[in-house]
């Protein structure tokens, strides 16, 4: 009963703001979605008419959500690259905090796979990962790790440009790991460390899973197929399989984005010869 009431109270606190509401010089146009610590909207700067992204610290998460949103704002201020949303503003209001950033148009890789039914060849995937690794290389060069490189967080624009979005979990390289779920089984703790340790290997690990999603886009399991791992289910070239094993830290992991890029270029040349 207590959990039910808590969930109802949190849902009430986090109910989306209405369209037309003004937050400083920004007018909310429509609700986009809700995450663990933030609520996002499309808004308009009423002074300039520019459409932007407005992210609100999730009220039910209190100070923690506001702290994370302030940190994300700091990350975006440091990152000045057209493939990453530009920082615009931060509003620290009495009841909540709001970050304003560039609104990136296009489709996420999640939408391309699950809504549009896109599939990819090995060569297309390696080329895509090479382009993504160039953005990741820039992020790492600023001393930052993204820590959430998932298919909903990479957008492909109509001009076929890649954009990495949502820096809500981003950290400085070498920071201490946060929010470690100490009550979870050891296997889940190990997975959490692989994904959330503020080190470049964590982003590479996420890229390995990203690559698997793209590879599985055209996979059709048979009705009675027993549960098997990706190495048994997918028919991959030895070079692609080797890169995946290194990204997933099953073999010696890549030291940095330069090493990853060089390997991907070699693989791409092999696949396109």
TrEMBL record:
Which Pfam families is this protein grouped with?
Answer: Pkinase (PF00069)
Q: Which domain of life is it from?
A: Bacteria
Residue ranges occupied by any Protein kinase domain in the UniProt entry: 26-273
Gene Ontology molecular function, alphabetical: ATP binding; protein kinase activity
User: By its UniProt entry, which PANTHER family does this protein fall under?
Assistant: SERINE/THREONINE-PROTEIN KINASE
Listed name of the protein = Protein kinase domain-containing protein
């Amino acid at each position: 009963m207590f959990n039910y009431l808590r969930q109802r109270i949190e849902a009430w606190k986090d109910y989306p703001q209405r369209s037309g509401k003004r937050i400083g010089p920004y007018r909310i146009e429509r609700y986009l979605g809700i995450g663990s610590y933030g609520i996002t909207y499309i808004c308009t700067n009423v002074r300039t008419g520019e459409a932007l992204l407005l992210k609100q610290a999730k009220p039910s998460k209190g100070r923690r959500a506001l702290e994370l949103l302030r940190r994300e704002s700091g990350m975006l201020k440091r990152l000045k690259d057209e493939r990453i949303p530009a920082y615009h503003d931060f509003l620290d209001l009495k009841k909540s905090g709001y970050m304003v950033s560039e609104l990136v148009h296009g489709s996420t890789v999640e939408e391309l796979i699950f809504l549009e039914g896109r599939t990819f060849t090995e060569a297309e995937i390696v080329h895509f990962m090479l382009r993504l690794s160039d953005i990741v290389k820039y992020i790492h060069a600023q001393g930052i790790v993204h820590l959430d490189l998932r298919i909903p967080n990479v957008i492909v624009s109509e001009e076929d440009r890649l954009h990495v979005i949502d820096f809500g979990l981003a950290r400085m390289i070498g920071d201490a790991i946060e929010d470690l779920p100490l009550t979870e089984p050891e296997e889940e703790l190990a997975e959490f460390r692989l994904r959330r340790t503020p080190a470049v290997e964590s982003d590479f690990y996420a890229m390995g899973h990203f690559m698997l999603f793209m590879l599985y886009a055209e996979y059709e399991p048979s009705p009675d197929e027993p549960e098997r791992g990706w190495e048994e289910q997918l028919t991959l070239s030895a070079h692609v399989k080797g890169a995946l094993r290194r990204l997933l830290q099953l073999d010696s992991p890549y030291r940095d984005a330069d090493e990853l890029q060089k390997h991907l270029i070699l693989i791409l040349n092999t696949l396109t010869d």
